[in-house]
Amino acid sequence: MREDAPGVNIEFLSPQSDHALLDSLQHGQIDLRLGWLPTPVQTLRSKLLFKDAIVCVARHEHPEFRGDITLEQYLQASHVRVDMQRAPFADRIVDQTALKMHRQLRIALKVQSMLTEFKVVANSDLIATVPKRLATQLADKEPLQLLPLPFNIPDVRIAMYWHEVTQHDAGRRWLRQLLTEVAKTL
Known about the structure:
By secondary structure, the chain is an alpha+beta fold.
């Protein structure tokens, strides 16, 4: 982006409610929403950028886990999560899966960022359920082990969303194309 458009500035905003998001997109206050909306409204356009598996992370020297985790261990473990206004798609799916088994995860700690979540896991016996791509990158920097989830859930889908009123805006079209090209490299 700095090569093609050095005068363009980017600002990432905290997640908004669905209504505020739609209003901001429709009025051009924001250009895109990145993430996953399972049922977007009809006035939103979208493009899938990539998919990512969900894994469990624990510290390397965790006293219970060495490369895998059983369903019962996972359900009984103490978890750390990022406290967000709207729970991420993966957290909602995991919670729904546990409820189908008449269980509920013990969320022992809530933190304000994913980086803090990984630091807590690396330095405690808490575990976290996170996107594999991010976990793989951070496992190079923190003493973490990636554990396959002991149940199947769908991959997280990351897409970009924009309002149809901005569909033909040249600058926004350029930005969407740039993000599409970057996503191909992931």
